[in-house]
Design brief:
This protein is mainly α and 83 residues long. The chain folds into two domains: 50 residues; 33 residues, no CATH class. The chain is built from five helices and no strands. α1 packs across α2. The longest helix is centred in the middle third of the chain and has 28 residues. The protein starts with 5 loop residues before the first helix and ends with a helix. 0% of the residues are buried.
Length: 83
């Protein structure tokens, strides 16, 4: 279950070509490419609007392992100093 291999994609393309024909397959591929382009543009727009500095500061307050969580519970005054 490691995803598709090149052989799998070739088989899928051949089956699609046999079922839909070259014109329809070309049209579907073009539309899929346009759709992926729109998704990439939307992702870039969302990423440019995110307040990355605020997210970075907020992520520093989240413990990454149990030891950090315990340390934050034991030493709450360090947490107040960092804010």
């Amino acid at each position: 279950m490691g995803g598709f291999h090149i052989f799998d994609l070739i088989v899928i393309a051949l089956v699609g070509l046999a079922i839909f024909g070259p014109k329809a397959l070309q049209s579907m591929a073009r539309n899929a490419g346009k759709g992926l382009g729109h998704v990439k543009e939307a992702k870039d727009k969302v990423m440019s609007e995110l307040p990355l500095e605020e997210l970075s500061r907020a992520s520093q307050k989240v413990p990454m392992n149990p030891q950090q969580a315990i340390h934050m519970l034991i030493m709450p005054e360090e947490k107040a100093k960092n804010e």
